[in-house]
Amino acid sequence: MLRVATWNINSVRLRIDQVARFVAEARPDILCLQEIKCREGEFPAEAFAAMGLPYLRVAGQKGWHGVAIASARPIRDAPRLEVCREGHARCVGGVVAGVEIQNFYVPAGGDLPDRALNPKFDHKLDFYERLAADVARRDRAAPLVLAGDLNIAPGENDVWNHRYMSKVVSHTPVEVETLTRLQAAGGFADVVRDAFPDPQKLASWWSYRAADFRKSARGLRLDHLWTSPGLTPGVVPASARIHEDVRAWERPSDHAPVTVDLAL
Q1: CA 180 to CA 154: how far, in whole Å?
Q2: Distance (Å, rounded) from C-alpha 251 to C-alpha 32?
Q3: pLDDT band at residue 160 under the 50/70/90 scheme
Q4: CA–CA separation, 149 and 253 (whole Å)
Q5: CA 139, CA 237: separation in Å to the nearest integer?
Q6: Is this structure's pTM higher than 0.90?
Q7: Number of domains in the chain
Q8: Which of 96, 103, 128, 237 is deepest in the core (most CB within 10 A)?
Q9: How far is Cα 228 from Cα 244, in angstroms, rounded to an integer?
């Protein structure tokens, strides 16, 4: 059994105690982190070794972005994906127990959903287009997990208000269509949504602006775990979970972790 977790931690050094608590409680074998906000040499490797996750792949950047994979089992290199035209640290990969893990922090895209007028939005869609082109060339039978903060809430029940959010970057029609094309390119299963079918509302991110995120109930499902056709039969559906309780911890990330178990 392999338990995979993804979490936009919003500064790994600031929240290292929360990471340790989550690892102790949820016991993931693989933890994919986004927005670590540090360079490789600044990553708290000793703390992860103490948690039982000593095997690391880190792509860092000073003060911004950054992604990492921490594993309880040995990890070897996976193909490096050149999908970020700006050269940001937004993607890191590794192979654990024969399963390739690709961990992403997709650009948020700014505020204006217009490729011509907003370079950040164009960058976001370009990132997806490059990734979809890579995925389309892959063998679907190969076990692959695509994980991370994809910065798109795809379905009507992945946002607090579909009509309103359809005009806001993260849920606009062009973004949803772009995400759908990526999913189709690899035949990926969205394991959390499959475990909790529509019309159940799901969210993994809630703004810091709300004093009580549960009371405001304005969440978005931006964090995803997808499996390739070669791996999807191993998904344990009842294990899929968004750890909303973690968002209620003191000084939390604005994202909650997401986990799933894979029977290998």
Answers
A1: 8
A2: 20
A3: very high
A4: 13
A5: 24
A6: yes
A7: 1
A8: 103
A9: 26
Cis omega (within 30 of 0) for bond into 143: no
Q: What CATH number did the domain enclosing 137 receive? A: 3.60.10.10
pLDDT at 211: 86
State the residue range of the domain holding 239.
2-262
Query: What letter represents residue 50's amino acid?
Result: A
What is d(CA 91, CA 233) in angstroms, rounded to the nearest whole number?
Answer: 26
Q: Which residue has the tokens 């950040």?
A: 120
211-220 contacts, C-beta under 8 A, 24 or more apart: 213/247, 213/248, 214/244, 214/248, 217/160, 218/160, 218/161, 219/159, 219/160, 220/153, 220/158, 220/159, 220/160, 220/165, 220/170, 220/171
Contacts of 196 (CB under 8 A, 6+ apart): 202, 240
Region of 111 please: left (phi>0), alpha (psi -120 to 50) or beta: alpha
